[in-house]
Write a structure and sequence with these properties.
two-stranded antiparallel sheet
Length: 82
């Protein structure tokens, strides 16, 4: 069964996650994107995150890259860089 979650901005810039996810990450002392990436493989172990929520967080992380890590082809098609 597919779950749909309402998301919101939180303390990690550029990420939009459900409120419950932000609460769990705060409780687990995860305050940066690097900390979240370092713990991405064990999100299901955090009390309050079900497998669907953990997968959604991983997918969100996959789409968020620091500006310096974006590929040249991404910059080439960015309308703001014209």
């Amino acid at each position: 069964m597919t779950h749909f979650y309402d998301t919101c901005a939180g303390p990690i810039e550029g990420l939009y996650l459900p409120t419950i996810a932000w609460e769990v990450l705060r409780r687990e002392n995860i305050h940066t994107i690097d900390q979240l990436r370092a713990n991405a493989d064990r999100l299901e172990q955090f009390d309050g995150l079900d497998p669907g929520m953990a997968q959604m967080i991983r997918l969100t992380l996959a789409y968020v890259a620091p500006f310096g890590e974006r590929t040249l082809s991404t910059k080439q098609y960015d309308p703001w860089s014209a």
